[in-house]
Amino acid sequence: MKILVVAGARPNFMKIKPFMNAISEFNAREISKTGRVDALLIHTGQHYDENMSEIFFRELGIRPPDVNLGVGSGSHAVQTAQIMIGFEALCDREKPDWIVVVGDVNSTMAGTLVAAKMGIRIAHIEAGLRSYDRTMPEEINRVVTDRLADLLLTPSEDADLNLLREGVPREQIKFVGNIMIDSLVENLPKARALDTLAKLRVNSLRFIYVTLHRPSNVDGQASLSALMDRLEEIAHRLPVVFPVHPRTRKMLSEYGIKHRSDSRLQLLDPIGYHDSLSLAENARLILTDSGGLQEEATYFRTPCLTLRPNTERPITITMGSNRLTKLDSFMDDVHDLINGPDRMGQVPPLWDGHAAERILQYILDAS
Ligand code: UD1
Fold it and tell me: What would you report as the CA-atom Rg of the chain, rounded to the nearest whole angstrom?
């Protein structure tokens, strides 16, 4: 059996590594009985900076991609189309039995569109999440990908219900748990061995970890400028560590919003996976608009404020430590949480470090 595993953007890398591991372990164990699974790793090139891509390959120990389509940045149509053109030629050449796509980025949807038209089976890891907010490009990617995928591998049971409501047949939906937590569990010892906090001169439970990159927060001058003012205010209360995503960096410079990075409000370049895990585990509070960090916060039980009107990951609120917030209310929410318990919520079912094995088994069963 041949599988093409597609990854393109930063949050994809920690989701594909456990799956690649599961395949290697299967091949080492089962080869004489059932034959080999050949997996090719395809990097679309959606993210390309050293600290948005290569650092994750290095830290996670992902082997170099077999193919890099090198598409780079562009408008949604340009980026999606470039991935489709490159990926179609690749599928033509490789003739895979399955493609595996993860998450909700443009690379996920582009790979899916190509495979569906070529009659190649599609497994979607992290299927069924819905924000029901079509102003988010990721929501469009999720809906299209899930409509076309053959096997929908879900991280939480709310995702199963979303898919059932959309008419997806029960037998195509498999609740497997959260594969990103597989990577987290495996990498935690390495993260704990680093001196991240000392390097940044912050103490455990005495700082706020901030990440903000969604177009809805950073692509408008007024909101971005207000956000930066609020962060400065919060930093009087607790030091803030804010690794700045390239999109956010670009908008800050385009709008001429200048901020000095100092020991209270540290504006950093994007950081690696292990440093990020260490910050998420030790923060007093996380303030974010990232999907992945909402889940990591839930696993660590670190109080988390998500600066968005909705989340496609409601389990991080109903079970986990996450809460939605708005520009107008987040100062109050920050004070509330800082005065509350320093760890909150519970870890959801099957966020146990073994999702990848279940995923591979379901793909083999469906083959
Ligand atoms: C993408 C995903 C988003 C995910 C995020 C994580 C889509 C629609 N969005 O958003 O879901 O949360 O990745 O990081 O797929 N840039 C660089 N270097 C890079 C990559 C990007 O400088 O390596 C800059 C470019 O100016 C680019 C901008 O960031 O135009 C945005 O990149 P893009 O991949 O379009 O979207 P993200 O905001 O990164």
Answer: 20
Residues whose CB is less than 8 angstroms from the CB of residue 286 and which lie 6 or more positions away in sequence, other chains included: 208, 209, 210, 211, 280, 293, 297, 302, 303, 304, 305
Same domain, 166 and 217: no
Residues 117 and 202 in one domain: no
Say if residue 56 is in the same domain as residue 161.
Answer: yes
Tell me, using a 6 A CB cutoff, whether residue 45 lines ligand 1: no
213 an active-site residue? yes
Query: Is 76 a member of any domain?
Result: yes
65 Rama sector, left if φ>0, alpha if ψ -120 to 50, beta otherwise: beta
For residue 215, which atom of ligand 1 is closest to its CA? Answer: 38
Looking at the structure of the chain, the number of domains it has is: 2
The whole-number pLDDT of residue 284 equals 98
pLDDT for the residue 315: 98
Indicate whether 182 belongs to any domain.
no
| pLDDT at residue 230 in the model | 94
Note down the domain range covering 243. Answer: 187-338
Fill in the amino acid letter for 222: A
Closest protein CA for atom 20 of ligand 1: 47
Q: Is 52 in the pocket of ligand 1 (CB under 6 A)?
A: yes
Is 163 in the same domain as 276?
A: no
> Quick check: CB of 249 below 6 Å from ligand 1?
no
Please pick, among 43, 47, 213, 274, the residue that the annotation labels catalytic.
213
List of the chain residues with pLDDT < 70 = 31-34
Both structure tokens of 221? 């001058």
Residues 234 and 316 grouped into a single domain: yes
Q: Is there an atom of ligand 1 within 6 Å of 250 CB?
A: yes
How far, in Å, from the CA of 8 to the mean position of ligand 1? 10
The CATH number assigned to the domain holding 147 equals 3.40.50.2000
Note whether 84 and 210 are same-domain residues: no
Find, among 251, 291, 227, 210, the residue nearest to 10 by Cα: 291
pTM of the model: 0.96
Amino acid at 185: V
Q: What is the pLDDT of residue 29?
A: 86
